[in-house]
Amino acid sequence: RKSEQELKDEEMELFTKYYVEWKGGRKSGNTSYTNIPRFYYRLPAEDEVLLQKLREESRAVFLQRKSRELLDNEELQNLWFLLDKHQTLPMTGEEAMINYENFLKVGETAVPKCKQFFTAKIFAKLLHNDPYGRISIMQFFNYVMRKG
Questions:
Q1: Contact 71, 114 (CB under 8 A)
Q2: pLDDT over threshold 90, residue 61
């Protein structure tokens, strides 16, 4: 059984070996590959403990960052309340609608996480044959729930 110091030394030795291998080990006459960004990284093998741990940790950090960007229930309820408050009359059947001016007002008062959804491009994407140039509040809300 190895002591803690021996394990740390072994880990540092592996790290140094891989670092040198990746950064300095590839010498070739043709250097055109240095201009092309690398898009594939092989998965670490089972015996590459350090690389496995690094991959797991980076994935966990990535997922945490993405989950912080998601809207929680309270933020979704507030968004629905704001959309409903700024709806533009007349209603189309049972469906509440909103025009671009009110859409931008909601975007200004909504939480910062929602700002990414209040763009002209998204409004135009959801705009259908409404004679008053409005979009459905329900369609927009469903869009936010799917994308956010």
A1: yes
A2: yes
